[in-house]
Amino acid sequence: MDLQNMNPSSLKSRFATRFLRALTKINAQKPISSSSSREIFQRYRRIKVAADKSMAYSVRSRRSWSRATLWRLRTRSPRSRLATLARRSSVKTRTTRAASHGATVVDRKSHGKENKEDGGVEAEELRELVPGGEAMDLCNLLDETAHYIKCLTTQVQVMRTIANLYSLH
Amino acid sequence: MESNAGTKETRSNLTASDGGEVTAFESLQFTDEIHRLILAPTTDNSSSFTALLELPPPQAVELLHSPDSPKLIAASPPNVEDFQGSFRFPSNSGLIERDARFSLFSGEANNSNEKRNSPESKNVSANPEKNVKSEPAETESSQPLVSDPTVEKRSIKRKDRENKVKGSTKKSKTVANENSEDAEKLPYVHVRARRGQATDSHSLAERARREKINARMKLLQELVPGCNKISGTALVLDEIINHVQSLQRQVEFLSMRLAAVNPRIDFNLDSVFTSESGSLMDSNFPSLVMPAIWPEVQGNGHRQQYQHQWHLDTLQQPVWGREEVCNNYITPENSLLTYDSSANSATLQANHLKMEL
User: Fold this and answer.
1) Given Cys at both, which of A157, B74, B237, B311 links B83, Cβ 3.0 to 4.6 Å?
2) Where do the IBH1-like N-terminal domain residues begin and end (chain A) (predicted)?
3) Of chain B residues 207-266, which have a CB less than 8 A from chain A?
4) Tell me: the pLDDT tens digits for B90-106?
5) What total of structural domains would you count in chain A?
């Protein structure tokens, strides 16, 4: 059986290579021996960011959610204050996630239903889940959700395999 | 029945550009179609364009010149050049298609005796069914996958409506008669609507949108396991939301697991690849058949390409190039014989990864 028959440019292999690269970088940064909970938590966050980032990069800008993820990653905490200001004033996102989530939900519900005839409350929830979903109509939202689910499944598969490999030793 | 054949062909060509987004290619097709319609030799003393509508020419011209029928194809043939510049959106071509179909009703009802109602409605409903069946067959060959469910849905809906038409008796006939009478009297015919539905432009656009959304919901239902049995948009959306949330949580758990598990391994993948010695490659290892961990292992002969890309991408080590000779599973016993344990685990690890990915 020929094991190397995978399509070299499939989403899975693209994501796998990128993620492994990022993972080795993270491993190289910190001394691996330390296992305090804080260290582990920091590593967890970095790994999670790396996973999302590598998945978004594997998809490039072909999808709205990947563009939104990349944009969000770029304007993250290093320049937090400027970033949130820029995000508020940008056209792309209607509401900022970092800002008071609860307050904006109410606004969104009152405006969202009028502006976009949608599936009601569930569509709003879906918009929150899918990155960049706030500024889409239901039709595109469903498209993006389908692709997002496919990519998430790939991500989970790859990460699970890597974790299984690592835990063998 | 040249006009009939021409009608069917044009209708199917129209449906070919129906459904989904208007790509440049489709718009080109449309242009060509219109040019062909204009330039084709006229049959039965009428241009094939009017044959499309199956109305007598003067009415057709009147119809074409109607000022407030923005959704018909063009005003008159000379104006088609203008039309070329401003393309309509898919919903319009959907309307045109329905338009043409409905005119089949009115046209045939007009032409034949209105006394012969029952055979009329049967004929009328028989013909579109044939057309409907030919349409999906033709559209499937020329459509991207996404618009297929849309078009098929539409054709399926039309079939259902046809069945309803057959079932319902007087009401539909009278409606058909009324509409056909309207077709005769009024200068313009709002023949876009399906039977028994509102002819409002807004509601038509709404309907097209709703069909799109329903098609996408169907795709999502197939993606999300366990969604096929649920009916109703809200519940399906709930399922989808749950699925997305669970996937995101899984990613988080796995990344936490990776963060926790890593410290135990006392090697660096980079150091593994740099310190790999040549003799490791040259020795022969028993070839074991690895279980296929990835569910989708494709049957292409891309192995060499993959390995090449792999080693160019991540490692930039010529070592991996040599590995393609021995595509093997390094057993612990073999490696223990020659190397120390840490290097063994490292190479074992790296080979694991390579094999499984």
Assistant:
1) B74
2) 9-76
3) 209, 212-213, 216-217, 219-220, 223-224, 233-234, 237-238, 240-241, 243-245, 247-248, 250-252, 254-266
4) 455 555 555 555 554 44
5) 1
